[in-house]
Amino acid sequence: MSQDSPSDERNHEISRRTTLGSFGTALVPAAMSITGAGASDDTGSPFTDIRVTGKQVIHAEITADEVVITKRKRSSDLVDRYGMREVVEERTISRRAPERDDLPRTGQRELRTDWETHHARGDEWATLFESEREALMRSGVADEAETPFPSAVPKYYHAADSGGYELHGPVNLLSNSTADADALAVEIDGEGGLFWNTFPVEYSRHMYIDGEWTEHEASVASGPFGIVGRTHARLWSGPNDTFGIAAAHIDDAVPHEATSYLEAESEITDMMDGTADYYEAGNGEHPGTDNGLLDHNGAVSLI
After folding, report:
1. What is the pLDDT of residues 231-265, one digit of tens each?
2. Which of 186, 213, 22 is nearest to 104 (CA)?
3. Residue 227: inside a domain, yes or no?
4. Is residue 245 included in any domain, yes or no?
5. What gap in Å lies between CA 64 and CA 97, rounded to an integer?
6. Which residues form the domain of 222?
7. What is the pLDDT, as a whole number, of residue 31?
8. pLDDT tens digits, residue range 186-227?
9. How many domains does the structure of the chain reveal?
């Protein structure tokens, strides 16, 4: 579903598309501060205008019936650009079986982090996808790549909030066995271990496919809650019924910040007897900058 300024204040049951940084018994009343990587100078890049640096506050409120998670992202760049003090990403999750979901009856937690990324309205991203296709959707062939990255497949996925879309991470896996996200989730789950599943608790993410913003259609993970961390992949059905698309990462302990893209990519590639670094996508950094996306090497494996 295409949206220019989506509002993410939707109710979700605990399912494969449920957002819940599962906080378990680690809930604390005090705030925590996490330091992020420094922003890089992208002066002269067409992406300069949508670069934002600021702060993010993530708050979870748990009651006996539901969990409400609110991310408030603030930046002077948003004020200068839109006169907007903050953008908000919010999820409300019903607790269908609170006696079995590993959460306390009530509680709250707040995390404070640096916020440094690219953020823009949907129409602004659409313009960039047309004018900067090489950076966002295709690249040349590197010597070490067996084939070029497919030109119709986006290189990144995004987080939607009240103000638009934030570039959030790289695509790092493609499948040519099926272009259907649900079928791909079943395939990966079938090769995983005992606790692998297709219904992880997670945040919704979006990808710009065929001119529309599409929420991820399936997921797979090495644990539904991942209290102490997990391998986690979100899946999209690819354009033209050609490729299944996956964005995989390693989560740390709750409330789940990504710590590695390459480890998750390698783990799933090995599970599926795939080919590592099959495509050279050139998406190891935020476009137009040298600000790296954790350990992602810019290549995409084939499964």
Report:
1. 999 999 998 788 999 999 998 866 677 899 999 99
2. 22
3. yes
4. yes
5. 10
6. 10-302
7. 31
8. 999 999 988 899 988 788 999 999 999 999 999 999 987 666
9. 1
Determine, yes or no, domain membership for 22: yes
Q: What is the pLDDT of residues 103-129, one digit of tens each?
A: 678 888 888 889 999 999 999 999 999
Residue 4 lies in a domain: no
pTM of the model: 0.81
Q: What is the mean pLDDT of the chain?
A: 82
